[in-house]
């Protein structure tokens, strides 16, 4: 008979759920992961940041990720029609990894979930969490699987359900993001790139020559395919009359660099759409639950910070939860919410700076001081929690820097 009572139940087996469940299982807790879908399954969020490597390493998952043969990544490149600027993450202010990978998430998420299962986590695929009830000492979740409906109990719930946002919806914690609503169109292509100026070791972010609120990503994979995506303000998307596929291709044709790189590309699968992806919550934790990764706040994809924040949240939350389950005093506000938000707020300043144009000025400025470039490179590499970096300690410095770059 399957066990019905656990120390911790994790909702969702994406990166935050896999890492959190694995860390807790290694500490000896009985952990169950309930995952709605069957893996491998598609997910967006394919460009990792070097900061992820440290967390994957400490969760004992790095070897499996390295051995999976993903595309090597050492930085980020930015292009407009007449400017090109690149950051090599190995040249950065903070200590730690300077390289990482760009990954097909179907495969990457399965690698992490399989690692968690190997470490003793029970994962049930095809199990959808539909209700949460606080029963005093325990929490009860209602679950719908392909065969039946059942309840499971736990001392604590970690919600790692990503855009499923299970507890924010069930407990009324949803809060509107301060970021404007934007639409993303994306697909995977056979990229066919053999252009001499293309640097396959970097993500390429291109800005639309007509409007700096519109931008594109090109994330190469190690098998000759790539992810391409377009971000545009919702009101601009809504004015359009053509198919998502044609709109994506039409916008790509406006860019000099990306259009040249993708000259021989084959767009051979459907274009997907995500509308209004930025989201927030009123609370990141409660008496018997905490929200990880995208189940909490999601900002914007421009600096590829999503998986990094998801992994950081898993790392921080499991540390606090371990203490709580041992009967020690914990303060989720100062030990989880505040430290997590400190890094999220660094990325927020960069995202705000991107859309108000100040950060684009900094990125494309020709003569940046080497030391300042290293500090910016560190944040772009995901080291948004390193308060020794002046741009982490006080992200508003970006505005001053942009003024300097403009003069
Ligand atoms: P997820 O990876 O979303 O996993 C959540 C899991 O929970 C899923 O498997 C889902 O099936 C499961 N689930 C949902 N509901 C239920 C339920 N009721 N019961 C049980 N299980 C459930 N991030 C990057 O780092 N790099 C990028 O390049 C990047 N690009 C992006 C581009 C776009 C357009 C967008 C919108 C986001 C991008 N992101 C990127 C962000 C990234 O996708 C997320 O931050 C990341 O996947 C969050 O991981 P997670 O573990 O929180 O959740």
Automatic annotation (TrEMBL):
Pfam families: FAD_binding_3
SUPFAM superfamilies reported in the protein's UniProt record: FAD/NAD(P)-binding domain
Keyword list, A-Z: Oxidoreductase
The FAD-binding domain, residue ranges: 6-227
GO molecular function ontology, one term from the record: oxidoreductase activity
Enzyme Commission number(s) from the entry: 1.-.-.-
InterPro entries from the UniProt entry: FAD-bd, FAD/NAD-bd_sf, Flavin-dep_Halogenase_NPB
Keyword Nucleotide-binding tagged: no
Protein name from the UniProt record: NAD(P)/FAD-dependent oxidoreductase
Species, as recorded: Marinomonas primoryensis
